[in-house]
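A note from the maintainers: we've had questions about how concatenated examples are separated. There is no special marker in the raw files; a new sequence line simply starts the next protein. For clarity in this README we add a label.
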Amino acid sequence: MAKRKTTKSKTFSKETYLEWYELMLRIRKFEERANLMYFQKKIRGFLHLCIGQEAVYAGMKTATRPTDAWITAYRQHGAAMAKGVDSNSAMAELYGKYTGNVKGKGGSMHFFSAEHRFYGGHGIVGGQIGLGAGIAFADKYKENDNVTFCMFGDGACRQGILHETFNMAMTWKLPVVFICENNFYAMGTSVERTSNVTDIYKLGLGYDMPSKQIDGMNVEVVHNEIAAAAEHCRSGKGPIFLEIRTYRYKGHSMSDPAKYRTKEEEKEYKDKDPINIIEAALLKKKHATAEDIDNIKTKVKEEIDAAVKFAEESEFPPAEEIYTDNYEQQDYPFIVD
């Protein structure tokens, strides 16, 4: 099966451009501040930044419904914020505070919101792929028209669970859009050095799954393709696989200096930074003035400043919280007294 035909473009409103710009800027500034707070040792543990990948989440937000489910890996602040997690609870979670998104128990990798149907943040590489299919199965069983968007990185494509899940999802025609956020380097090793298949979307073709490679640095393209994929799934035709080619400007994590790539390559991608492109489009289309842009930047800066203040003034979880929110099976048969 070949790649799906090119999705028809659509004309976007002034409001949509402004929504994209503010959301991408919020994610960018949130993570830049998190980066700073990490080096000040206010944030500890793991921290995986998605700076450069914001167009993926902004395009997904405007192309999906609030009732659709999202599940992703550990590089997940941007996805969580696009799905509705607010800056205060997100920053407090990074600080490990009780006011955090999951009471300070999850940290950077494990945001969760049943309210917004955001099902994580998962630290096990590829672990969320099977879970995403399970969420889609539940929606199909309930006979609603929700779609699950299951995201993972290029490194997770080497996991066996991807192939098992692709086969099952196609067999059962599950309403799930599998999304590989291909930023080319997994944990630090390029796709070219780890796989003979460098066009990752082709992995779906072995299961006759409609599959496509798209530009993740262009929010308009992301919106169009996500909207088309969601329509396909809602119509009962089964899953779709999108390889969204994007780029992270930072290393894999805070301990990664990213010396495995060239300055020329980094510049190439920064020259097509999605936030700068939308800012230029707003001005060119006269959807916003330079003053309007400055006002948005000021608004976002104040929001992130307030989020840091909120996190720093919040309390750590009380010791007894270690016993709450844990799964417990009363009749578990394998406990020996």
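[label: protein 2]
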Amino acid sequence: MPNTQPLTITLPPLRITLTEEQQVNLEWLTQNLPNLLAAAPSKPEVPDNLKQWVAANKLLNQPDADIIQGLINTGIDAETATAEVTKISSHPYFQAGSQYVQLLQKLESQLSINNQLAALSSKFGAIERKSSLSREYFLENYYAKNTPVIITNIMHNWKALQLWTPEYLQEKYGDAAVEIQANRNSDPDYEIKVHNHKKTVLFREYVDMVVNGGPSNDCYMVANNQTLEREEFKPLFNDFEIFPEYLNPDDTKGRVFFWFGPKGTITPLHHDPVNLVLAQVSGRKLIKLICPQQTPLLYNHVGVFSKVDGENPDYDKYPLYRDAKIIEVILEPGEVIFIPVGWWHHVKSLEVSISVSFTNFVFPNYYEWKYPHINWS
């Protein structure tokens, strides 16, 4: 009888052996499977972050060749890149997303058309300055029409215009502990991550920072600090009048805000979820406003904030912003500006500045918003 040896064939995860007696033995290679698989060449894959990038660019109708080249530039081989871009259009998740993008683009086109029509007006790009408007006139011509206006000659009853100097505030309230926003220069998203920048100091220390620190955006007492909610600062209400033509003096809790900071403080480009009036007590503020119809140009990426730096816009990263029509006004002490809900604005203090803002209108001022959000992980 010829001398035969067992015949072994390995097909992971299975080993097949044909014995001398022509019996077949099967052995599962469960223990060695990881090593065997590791030895086999792995198929290159596109990571999830690049898949998201591919989907976003496909939804924006970027050419396939450009998207493929973008993947190749990150180190993905050409075959894998081509396969990834080719298959995404047929994915049901992508198809569902594409339908919603089309709905969004329809809304954006409507906003663009409204903006083109508004540009035909002789008043486009200008904000009126009006003296002491009646309630009815203000409602009909500005509040109901979502149109900003600067109102003059309505702060003459404000004792704050004479009293509120840094020195006066320091003398009267210096021993009170206050919350400020600090170390803002360390974080370009300081307004979004506002809780990371809270700091408690004595008010007299903060006044010294404002007066002696020179121009700076590193510290600011902003609306979020709720200064006027503090019992120690309630006497400040005696120094100003809550404009009864437009505002409800019995509805002040959480709706009246105190702003105090050095020259150079900036509130980055954003819109508010409600209507507001900003009364300038001391110093001047440069305010850049952009109407809501131009929202598609402003790269709104989280909540009410734009990605664009309104002080130094990067047009290479945000090219659509080039087409935004920006209205610039300087708010003088003793003036009040009405900023309607949804209007984008960027604010910079040109001197040491003290302001008070209000949202407690006698008219309806609650709205339902749906915001974009961002994953910081």
